[in-house]
């Protein structure tokens, strides 16, 4: 058993700390607050390190630049429609920025039709003579000399009987002198004056005149 003197000596041997090093209740509280702040910062940093890659991955990727074309713009225009219950009321799209070129159709080249050389009445059929008159009037109008009227009368009487509209169905000869072909007569082959004028030229060029044509006809019964 220790004596009282021993206990006193033991107490004296204990080293007393300076007042500056002794911990006060206020200092302990500050240290605990600092430790809590540090711990909180550490937790936040750890959470950010975990969430940051995931956030980047979940973010919407940047849209790639899409080249705008005539087709894409036209497609948008055709889809921009307004439909009512009464029917399809389509709002006209603004296409002022576009121009459409339509290749024009070539103009057909007109085909020239051959001109009629007279005689048979053209494409609408023969133009038959409907006027009046007498053989003497027709010969005078055709410029035939009266001295040749007898020759002309003989030939015309045998060829057509003085019928201005006489037509040979087999050969196509027409008129008073039976001009062949009828289209050779300038004007109208069925007009008696035109027909006799042509006959004068034919008789002169082939037989030397109406007298020679008469002589040939009486021998051969044609001219």
TrEMBL record:
The chain crosses the membrane at residues 34-59. The lineage of its organism: Bacteria, Bacillati, Actinomycetota, Actinomycetes, Micrococcales. The keyword Membrane applies. Residues 140-211 form the Transglycosylase SLT domain. Keywords: Membrane, Transmembrane, Transmembrane helix. It comes from Microbacterium natoriense. This is Transglycosylase SLT domain-containing protein. The keyword Lyase does not apply.
């Amino acid at each position: 058993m220790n004596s009282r003197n021993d206990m006193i000596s033991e107490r004296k041997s204990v080293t007393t700390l300076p007042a500056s090093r002794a911990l006060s209740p206020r200092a302990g509280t500050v240290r605990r607050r600092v430790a809590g702040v540090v711990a909180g910062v550490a937790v936040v940093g750890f959470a950010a390190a975990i969430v940051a890659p995931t956030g980047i991955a979940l973010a919407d990727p940047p849209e790639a630049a899409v080249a705008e074309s005539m087709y894409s713009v036209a497609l948008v225009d055709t889809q921009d429609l307004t439909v009512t219950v009464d029917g399809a009321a389509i709002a006209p799209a603004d296409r002022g920025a576009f121009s459409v070129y339509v290749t024009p159709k070539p103009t057909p080249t007109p085909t020239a039709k051959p001109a009629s050389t007279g005689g048979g009445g053209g494409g609408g059929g023969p133009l038959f003579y409907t006027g009046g008159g007498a053989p003497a009037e027709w010969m005078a109008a055709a410029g035939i000399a009266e001295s040749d009227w007898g020759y002309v009368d003989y030939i015309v009487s045998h060829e057509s009987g003085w019928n201005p509209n006489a037509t040979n169905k087999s050969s196509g000869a027409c008129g008073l002198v039976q001009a062949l072909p009828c289209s050779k007569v300038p004007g109208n082959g069925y007009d008696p004056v035109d027909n006799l004028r042509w006959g004068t030229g034919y008789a002169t060029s082939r037989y030397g005149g109406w007298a020679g044509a008469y002589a040939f006809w009486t021998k051969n019964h044609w001219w």
